[in-house]
Every structure is written in structure tokens, then in C-alpha cells.
Amino acid sequence: QKEVEQDPGPLSVPEGAIVSLNCTYSNSAFQYFMWYRQYSRKGPELLMYTYSSGNKEDGRFTAQVDKSSKYISLFIRDSQPSDSATYLCAMNVYGGATNKLIFGTGTLLAVQP
Amino acid sequence: EAGVAQSPRYKIIEKRQSVAFWCNPISGHATLYWYQQILGQGPKLLIQFQNNGVVDDSQLPKDRFSAERLKGVDSTLKIQPAKLEDSAVYLCASSPPGADTQYFGPGTRLTVL
């Protein structure tokens, strides 16, 4: 079983739709959760990070963590064609000497104009 | 603030040849990472440096891969000899002191024929 599971998609939605991207994980020691956005032929760009269960909002993006279910989500409101990219979840044990991020496989999102 | 710089952006070699990649992290970032991202997968950590010391190289195939970070700034990753399965994007990332967030460069896309 992989430590982090993510539906690879592709996910295609019309412009303006609400998008829900999800990851599950098996390691209960994970405490630090991130979402990265990766455009084609570019490096991953940090979108959101959180240390705790609950919701964190930043503009059109909301990150949600449910540690009891080992489940994290990223919601995108009013999706735009410029949101078309691969979204990677990543997680780590906070404060460890090594800071190895464990990534999901990424979900490819296409927002149709 | 300038981001993480990597070169070359693309490289095509034949199997059994050697290749080297270069990374310049964000100024002041003490921690530097090399990740391998195979097509359709999330990045996988190869090696982590703290200043010029290795913190984690547990997933680096040491029979063919080597990395160094002289003077605690720039880093090079070398593959010798390359195999077909080394075809991937090699991403460099860096973190500021005391932070968990990692900032990625654009990557080097390696094709081994």
C-alpha cells in the first residue's frame, strides 16, 4: 500500500465549477500537509500548507484536513482555465531531522472555458 | 526574490553515458533537495543536504548516482552510467532555515535513449 494515494484523473470541469481534489494517507505520523500546483513542463509551486485538522482558506482555494480519517482535500471555487494543471498533495512528519516530502501521484485538472 | 535555478532544462543522452545537473537554490536557503519525478508520478526524494552535509540519501541509487554541495550553496547531481529507467524530470528544491516549506526549480528533463 502506498503511503499517499491520489486519484490521477484526468478531471475535466467547466469554467466556474467547484473542484474537489483528494488524497488519502496511511501513515498516522504525518502532521504537515501541502498542496502543490504543477503546470506542464514546470516545477511544483506551493499553493497551501497546514499543520492541523480543519479548514484553511486562501482566496479561491480551501485546504481541508481530517486526521481521524487520514484524508485531505483541496477545493477550488469559481475555477478558471488558468487553474488547469496537475495538483499534487504532499505530506511530512513535522519537525523531523529529515524533511522528506511524500507526494501523491498528482491529479490532472482541465478547466474548460 | 529569485527562485531556484536549474540547468540544463533538457538533456538527451544514450544509455551508459554520464550526465550532470546543476542547481542554485534561493539565497539564504540552507536546505537543498534533489527529487526524481517519473512521468505520471509524484516527485521522489533522492537526497537532502543541510548546508554542505548530507541529511538523507536513503533513496539515492549510489551505484550510479552521486551528488555534492560544495560550500553549502550550489549543488550538482550526476548519473554515471545512465539507464533507460533514469528518464525523468530531476527537480531541485530548497528551504529556508527552520521552515518545512520547499520551493522547487523548473527541473531538468532527462531522456535516456
Which structural traits does this protein have?
heterodimer; A: mainly beta; Immunoglobulin-like; five-stranded antiparallel beta sheet; 0% helix; globular; B: 113 residues; four-stranded antiparallel beta sheet; 11 strands
Spell out the blueprint of helices and strands.
The complex is a heterodimer of chains A (113) and B (113).
Chain A: E1 4-6, E2 11-14, E3 19-25, E4 32-38, E5 45-50, E6 54-58, E7 61-66, E8 71-76, E9 85-92, E10 102-103, E11 107-112
Chain B: E1 5-7, E2 10-13, E3 19-24, E4 31-37, E5 44-50, E6 53-56, E7 65-68, E8 75-79, E9 88-95, E10 103-104, E11 108-112
Parallel strand pairs in B: 2-11
Antiparallel strand pairs in B: 1-3, 3-8, 4-5, 4-9, 5-6, 7-8, 9-10, 9-11
Can you offer a commentary on this structure?
The complex is a heterodimer of chains A (113) and B (113). By secondary structure, chain A is mainly β. Helix content of chain A is 0%, strand content 53%. Chain A has a single domain (4-112), classed as Sandwich (Immunoglobulin-like). In chain A, the strands form two sheets. In chain A, strands 2, 4, 5, 9, 10 and 11 form a six-stranded mixed β-sheet that branches. In chain A, strands 1-3-8-7-6 form a five-stranded antiparallel β-sheet, with no helix packed on it. Chain A starts with a strand and ends with a strand. Chain B is an all-beta fold. Chain B has strands spanning 5-7, 10-13, 19-24, 31-37, 44-50, 53-56, 65-68, 75-79, 88-95, 103-104, 108-112. In chain B, the strands form two sheets. In chain B, strands 2, 4, 5, 6, 9, 10 and 11 form a seven-stranded mixed β-sheet that branches. Chain B has a four-stranded antiparallel β-sheet with strand order 1-3-8-7, with no helix packed on it. The radius of gyration of chain B is 13 Å and the shape is globular. Chain A binds chain B through residues 4, 6, 8, 32, 34, 36, 41-46, 49, 88, 90, 92, 94, 97-101, 103-106, and chain B through 4, 31, 33, 40-45, 48, 55-56, 91, 93, 95, 100-107, 109.
